[in-house]
Amino acid sequence: MAKERIYELAKELKMPSKDLVKVANQQGMQIKSHMSSVTPEQAQKLRQVAKGNNGQSKKAGKEPVKGQQHGQKNEGHRKNQQKRDGKKTAKVQRDEHKHEQRHNNDNAKKTVQNDNHQKQGHKQHGNQQRNNQNHNGRFGGSLNNNDHNGRNRFNKKNKKRNKKHNKGNNRLREVKQKQPTQRKDRPLPEVLEYTEGMNAQDLGKILHRSPAEIIKKLFMLGVMINQNQSLDKDTIELLATDYGIDAKEKVEVDVSDIDKMFEDEEKNTDHLVSRPPVVTVMGHVDHGKTTLLDKLRHSHITEHEAGGITQEIGAYQVHYKDNLITFLDTPGHAAFTEMRARGANITDITVLVVAADDGVMPQTVEAIHHAQAAKTPIIVAVNKIDKPGANPERVVEELAKYNLIPEDWGGDTIFVNISAKFGKNIDELLDMIQLQAEMMELKANPDQNGAGSVVEARLDQGKGSVATVLVQQGTLHVGDPIVVGNTYGRVRTMTNENGRRIKEATPSTPVEITGLNAVPEAGDRFVVFDDEKTARAAGEKRAEHAQEEEWKRTSHVTLDNLFATMKEGQMKTLPLIIKADVQGSVEALSQSLQKIKVDGVRVDIIHQAVGAINESDVTLAEASNAVIIGFNVRPTPSAQSLADSTNIDIRLHRVIYNAIDEVEKAMKGMLEPVYKEETIGQVEVRQLYKASKVGTIAGGMVTTGKITRDSKVRLVRDGVVVYEGELGSLKRFKDDVKEVKAGFECGLTIENYNDIKEKDVIEAYQMKEVPVK
Ligand SMILES: Nc1nc2c(ncn2[C@@H]2O[C@H](COP(=O)(O)OP(=O)(O)OP(=O)(O)O)[C@@H](O)[C@H]2O)c(=O)[nH]1
């Protein structure tokens, strides 16, 4: 036979589940709740025990008069009976439970209560079902009890309370009496669709029943609740079972979970068609990434770059032999590592540029690791083969260490020798990219809602938020309601890499979109929604959540710093706020600044964002004692005046290196100065004078250097340092002087020290600050 649930058994035995749980546990069964199950043998045992109890309560009910007359005696009798049984019975449990439920402010109550129970039991015995008897016994007992107490013992206040109580009980009685009419109510639903945490009122609405009825039903099942109390899953399911209907938990769709939506869209395998590969070019600084991308694009980005770092991050498509290849123009500086790592996630193929005259360098290795971690195949472009010092073979040898082995050597990595500058073998490289793409069978479904990732985002004075996104699935249309990271909106305009307005973008197409309510972050995902209202709700919820996280993080960081400072012993932090024109620069600066190594000081970036320096940045800087670094942005006039009045330091830069350099210098300046002792002169003691008020005065000759009033002194006797301390006074004849040079006589005292002897040498020294390197 199948296992039985406690609540089912309790129903059969017409007793509250809670009581049956207690009984079961007393029987040594380890039962947690009414939802627990018991074996058929255990169920049988419980039936027996419970029936025994019922018999007992009947017996108790048969002695009402006696009980009424000799309340105390009857109590004693029952206690004895319990003792005889050697264990608490279900009935006793119930009675105990009743006691808990009642007002427990009267010691004498116990007797009366018991008395009343018996009375009630007797009253109802003939005309009520047993389960109702239990139930009414509770309320009835309580009612009578209160009446009784109210008449005999309670003060006015208690009377009032009792009245209230009675009213409640009467109401319940009414409910009971009205039950037949209620059955004519609207029928119960076939399935109770619920969410965890619903209360009796919510459930009442779904079940077309009054909350009071629900409360009562649960009460009968041993669950005491009020109508506003949130109910857990088990209780709601228990209630549904009691009504004889199924319960089903409603699965709430979290519209703000765009990652899940993105994955769902990605998993969709309907109507898949080939899509262009997305290629990222990576490599060490100066190995020729920009030159290669330029060559492919036939434009010249390098000339516009401030400070030599690729600061514009974009993406474009190249037409080659009737096919398209999408290139992500990721930056090459080590500071952009983080973004490059993100870039690799939306990348199908990595082209690793290695200069043939330079070989494998640290960032080459870094790029390999990122590509391998993202499991994207690597095509090696050995660049600068036109150079006299070029040694492509060496590059092949060096890369073998990183598992990049050419086919000739038995591996499967494609190597192409190129000259980006002179356009040599560029077509061959594109052929190889297409070959690799074909092997990968890259596909997507253009017929579904668009989904993809942000490559770059910035704030444009005229256009507002501008984001370069890569469509990875579906088709993105102008007018689409969209959620991008923590921002939302409707795609207002879509522009391709040539600045041309387009209406739709299919998979692997990079486009610049406008129409978002705020600036998203590079690497953020986007999904298209069916309607703007939901998109807005999802976007707002995400923004709210992000804000909460930001608050948490900020307070966390402060705490972390506190601990770190304590642990690392007076470690200093330089709090910074970074504002820049594009997300790429924000991250580049942030990464570089955090990498600055100055012993004893570290950078703490408390806020970083795209956009002009505003008042809230200044307020934050003031509260955190931070410096604001602006890169290619300026403060708003109000922010500037606030900064002026609060003395907040705003540093504006147009070249990343300068910003980094300035911060590094500031950090060095922040260090506790390091002092070195520097001897400035010596005095030979020739005569001694004792003055009662000032102690020992030494008269002597400055033999080398000088002695100054603020010198520290060291008393040396026969080459041994006898005392170190401060100078007490310095005189020439009777006058106090600031310093005495070599060749002149002087008189001096040493503070708190009088044991000076003739021929002692007094060495004068100062602590000199040593500049930090
Ligand atoms: N001779 C020769 N020079 C090249 C070649 N490719 C690039 N260069 C030169 O190498 C230098 C660096 O090239 P970039 O394209 O700026 O290198 P990068 O890897 O993009 O550098 P970052 O953007 O700073 O990371 C430039 O002076 C280029 O003209 C090539 O194939 N042959």
UniProtKB/TrEMBL annotation:
Q: Where is the composition biased (Polar residues)?
A: 27-42
Q: Where on this chain does GTP bind? A: 283-290, 329-333, 383-386
Q: Specify the superkingdom.
A: Bacteria
Which Gene3D superfamilies does the protein's record reference? Answer: 1.10.10.2480, P-loop containing nucleotide triphosphate hydrolases, Translation factors, Translation initiation factor IF- 2, domain 3
* Cellular-component GO terms for this entry: cytosol
In terms of one coarse class, where is the protein primarily found?
A: cytoplasm
Protein function: One of the essential components for the initiation of protein synthesis. Protects formylmethionyl-tRNA from spontaneous hydrolysis and promotes its binding to the 30S ribosomal subunits. Also involved in the hydrolysis of GTP during the formation of the 70S ribosomal complex.
This one is known as Translation initiation factor IF-2
Q: Which organism is it from?
A: Limosilactobacillus frumenti DSM 13145
